[in-house]
């Protein structure tokens, strides 16, 4: 991902601002910008873990589809990999753009992390639907 120096500095500021971690913050009621950023980052991490787990399942389903096809009809797994790479580029660019609402400010890392979490949660559902469709 390439979110630039402002994001890196914002994250560094979060880490230096008391050394708090998301598991030490009440993410149902964050009170500071640092707390809000930590909570969004934790949500981003959880969404990323769920996406990676679902992607493995969906990719396995696509491999299974390919295994049932003649050589000239294969390509399900390759199509998924191509789509996922394009999706990652879209997500990163879209969330970088969303961060411009507070470019250079302390809210920028929170906005980017929240955007990534939101878009990743949607993609995980899409991958689950694709897996379900391929497994029927």
Explain what you see.
With 136 residues, the chain is mostly helical. The protein has a single domain (4-135), classed as Substrate Binding Domain Of Dnak, Chain:A, Domain 2. It contains four helices and no strands. It has helices at residues 4-16, 33-67, 76-99, 108-135. It is elongated, with a radius of gyration of 18 Å. The model has no long low-confidence stretch (mean pLDDT 89).
Task: Please indicate the count of domains.
Answer: 1
- The outline comes out as elongated
Report the C-alpha radius of gyration, rounded.
18 Å
* Helix-residue proportion: over 70%
Strand content bin: under 5%
Largest sheet entry: none
E-strand count: 0
Kindly report the CATH topology: Substrate Binding Domain Of Dnak, Chain:A, Domain 2
Mean pLDDT: 89
Number of helices: 4
Question: Helix-strand pattern, N to C?
Answer: HHHH
The CATH class assignment is Mainly Alpha
Termini distance? 35 Å
The CATH architecture classification is Up-down Bundle
Structural class: mainly alpha
Uncertain stretches of 5 or more adjacent residues: none
Considering the chains and any ligands shown, give keywords for the structure.
Substrate Binding Domain Of Dnak, Chain:A, Domain 2, 4 helices, mainly alpha, elongated, 0% strand, 136 residues
